[in-house]
């Protein structure tokens, strides 16, 4: 996990206040979306708890002593949800899955991985998928399951329950 | 002795004591009032001999003392010295000009037993003061009503008294206003000769001062007409300074300026506000009342151009990087309330964006929208 390349907005104090002006807010949330997805991708963060948001450096810039409040984090995540990049895990919307690829994209990536590694028509474990050196490295089990469910709907895979973990069989 | 007057006792007076063979002294000098009778009542001391009656009001008496007289046959106390206040007696009396500030009562043999005590007690009681105010005991509702009425009358008189001074002040104030007007006119004439900074400022003070004929409520029977006229007066007073400060002035500041110009006959905030509401009903007036989204009321010149103010705010933001309402108000010389309104309107127009933190609300240039220009 390398250092995050912070964009200029990260050291711009108003970035940490949700802007009331609609047009400004739109730009602001776009910037947040880009930053947060990039952050999650490089830092392999899949689950964000709104209440503990300030533990993530992305929401807490100690240099300019600005934090994104839990309410504001929710607003940012809701913006991500609209593009399919986030999904609340509970009704109170405090825990969220963040997808730096949308689930559709993930599904395609996983299937492509299976094709490239000649895994079609064989069973492989989640561990194998998540420990690949490529894009799939470190993928969260929950996110992977959801991606595989997409493949199931496409009838390209089937999730199997194995001893000591889950596995998947890809169809050609 | 000049405190004495020719007065006979009133039959209704209570005689406290009576003694004979008393000679009066004016200071240390013996008078012609020799061996007469003295009568003491609660308010007066009388001396009489035959048909002659003279009397001294007890209110003149400061204090009295008995004097021991030494003689061949031993010492006797037969004289009382009575010290008196200065005379304000206007009634005819036996002596026009006194020889001393005290008199003596000289008894032939000795001061009768108890006389001095009674005399001192009577003076100390000051019954004459008490009898002056009719002390009536009233009972029932009638009495209470009468008391209330009297109290009202007394306070009425004192209020009228108090405001008499104010009236005089108002008359003088008109002269002062005239004077200030004269000065400001003279300065106007000599405008070319004066260039000094302070003089200019002084001039602006004077020009801002003085309304020849303030609009007052008493001149109108109809409050609508009053407000309309008042509204015109306010515009006249405020117009120049309004343009100086950039076209917008918060109502609180308007209030201060208008009342400073009036000097006296001050306006109530309510009257001012009502008069300002009239501005929006007449389209031709050069000043309008504007209500900001936050509820702040301000007067705005029709020459006011929002884009000019916005440009100014953006410039200030560029210079300072970020601004709080407080900082903007000091740097462009408007009130904090207005500065905040300016910043909010800049935000509304996408020129600025806010940073809310524990340090308060600050505004920055809107880099989100101007990203391309950065």
Automatic annotation (TrEMBL), chain A:
InterPro entries recorded: ESCRT-II_cplx_Vps25-sub (IPR008570), ESCRT-II_cplx_Vps25-sub_N (IPR014041), WH-like_DNA-bd_sf (IPR036388), WH_DNA-bd_sf (IPR036390)
Pfam family membership, one: ESCRT-II
Localization (cell): Cytoplasm
Any one GO MF annotation of this record: structural molecule activity
Origin: domain of life: Eukaryota
Alphabetic keyword roster: Cytoplasm, Protein transport, Transport
GO CC, any one term: ESCRT II complex
Residues that span the membrane, as ranges: none
A Gene Ontology BP annotation from the UniProt entry: protein transport to vacuole involved in ubiquitin-dependent protein catabolic process via the multivesicular body sorting pathway
Keyword Transport applies: yes
Family membership noted in the UniProt record: Belongs to the VPS25 family.
Annotated protein name in UniProt: Vacuolar protein-sorting-associated protein 25
Originating species: Sipha flava (yellow sugarcane aphid)
From TrEMBL, chain B:
UniProt organism field: Sipha flava (yellow sugarcane aphid)
Name this polypeptide is given: Vacuolar protein-sorting-associated protein 36
Name of the encoding gene: Vps36
Keywords carried by this UniProt record: Cytoplasm, Endosome, Protein transport, Transport
InterPro entries listed in its UniProt record: GLUE_dom, PH-like_dom_sf, Snf8/Vps36, Vps36, WH-like_DNA-bd_sf, WH_DNA-bd_sf
One GO BP: protein transport to vacuole involved in ubiquitin-dependent protein catabolic process via the multivesicular body sorting pathway
PANTHER family from the UniProt entry: VACUOLAR PROTEIN-SORTING-ASSOCIATED PROTEIN 36
Job of this protein: Component of the ESCRT-II complex (endosomal sorting complex required for transport II), which is required for multivesicular body (MVB) formation and sorting of endosomal cargo proteins into MVBs.
Lineage: Eukaryota, Metazoa, Ecdysozoa, Arthropoda, Hexapoda
Keyword Cell membrane part of the UniProt annotation: no
PROSITE patterns documented for this protein: GLUE
Quaternary structure, from the entry: Component of the endosomal sorting complex required for transport II (ESCRT-II).
Cellular location(s): Cytoplasm; Endosome
Similarity field: Belongs to the VPS36 family.
């Amino acid at each position: 996990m390398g250092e995050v390349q912070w964009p200029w907005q990260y050291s711009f104090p108003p970035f940490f206040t949700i802007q009331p002006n609609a047009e400004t807010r739109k730009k602001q949330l776009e910037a947040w979306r880009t930053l947060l997805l990039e952050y999650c991708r490089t830092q392999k963060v899949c689950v964000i708890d709104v209440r503990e948001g300030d533990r993530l450096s992305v929401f807490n810039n100690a240099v300019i002593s600005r934090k994104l409040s839990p309410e504001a984090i929710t607003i940012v995540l809701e913006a991500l949800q609209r593009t399919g990049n986030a999904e609340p895990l509970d009704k109170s919307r405090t825990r969220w899955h963040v997808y730096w690829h949308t689930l559709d994209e993930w599904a395609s990536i996983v299937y492509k991985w299976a094709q490239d590694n000649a895994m079609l028509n064989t069973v492989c474990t989640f561990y194998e998928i998540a420990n690949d050196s490529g894009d799939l490295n470190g993928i969260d089990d929950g996110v992977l399951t959801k991606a595989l469910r997409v493949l199931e709907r496409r009838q390209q895979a089937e999730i199997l329950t194995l001893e000591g973990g889950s596995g998947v069989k890809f169809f050609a | 002795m000049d405190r004495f007057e020719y007065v006979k006792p009133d039959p209704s007076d209570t005689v406290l004591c009576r003694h004979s063979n008393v000679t009066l002294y004016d200071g240390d000098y013996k008078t012609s009032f020799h061996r007469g009778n003295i009568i003491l009542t609660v308010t007066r001391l009388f001396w009489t001999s035959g048909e002659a009656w003279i009397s001294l009001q007890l209110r003149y008496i400061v204090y009295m003392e008995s004097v021991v007289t030494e003689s061949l046959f031993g010492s006797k106390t037969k004289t009382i010295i009575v010290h008196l206040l200065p005379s304000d007696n206007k009634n005819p009396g036996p002596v026009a000009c006194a020889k001393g500030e005290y008199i003596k009562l000289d008894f032939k043999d000795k001061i009768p037993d108890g006389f001095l005590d009674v005399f001192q007690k009577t003076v100390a009681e000051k019954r004459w003061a008490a009898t002056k105010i009719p002390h009536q005991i009233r009972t029932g509702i009638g009495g209470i009503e009468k008391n209330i009425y009297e109290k009202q009358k007394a306070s009425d008189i004192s209020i009228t008294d108090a405001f008499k001074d104010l009236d005089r002040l108002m008359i003088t104030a008109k002269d002062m206003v005239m004077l200030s007007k004269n000065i400001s006119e003279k300065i106007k004439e000599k405008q070319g000769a004066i260039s000094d900074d302070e003089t200019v400022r002084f001039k602006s003070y004077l020009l801002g001062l003085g309304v020849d004929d303030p609009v007052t409520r008493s001149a109108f029977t109809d409050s609508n007409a009053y407000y309309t006229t008042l509204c015109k007066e306010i515009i006249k007073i405020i117009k120049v300074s309004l343009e100086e400060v950039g076209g917008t002035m918060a109502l609180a500041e308007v209030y201060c300026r208008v009342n400073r110009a009036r000097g006296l006959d001050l306006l109530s905030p309510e009257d001012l506000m009502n008069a300002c509401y009239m501005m929006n009903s007449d389209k031709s007036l050069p000043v309008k009342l504007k209500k900001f989204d936050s509820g702040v009321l301000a007067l705005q010149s029709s020459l006011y151009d929002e884009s000019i103010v916005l440009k100014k705010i953006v410039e200030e933001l560029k210079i300072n990087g970020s601004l709080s309402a407080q900082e903007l108000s000091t740097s462009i010389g408007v009130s904090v309330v207005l500065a905040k309104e300016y910043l909010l309107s800049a935000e509304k127009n996408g020129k600025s964006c806010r940073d809310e933190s524990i340090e308060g609300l600050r505004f920055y240039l809107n880099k989100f929208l101007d990203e391309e220009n950065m």
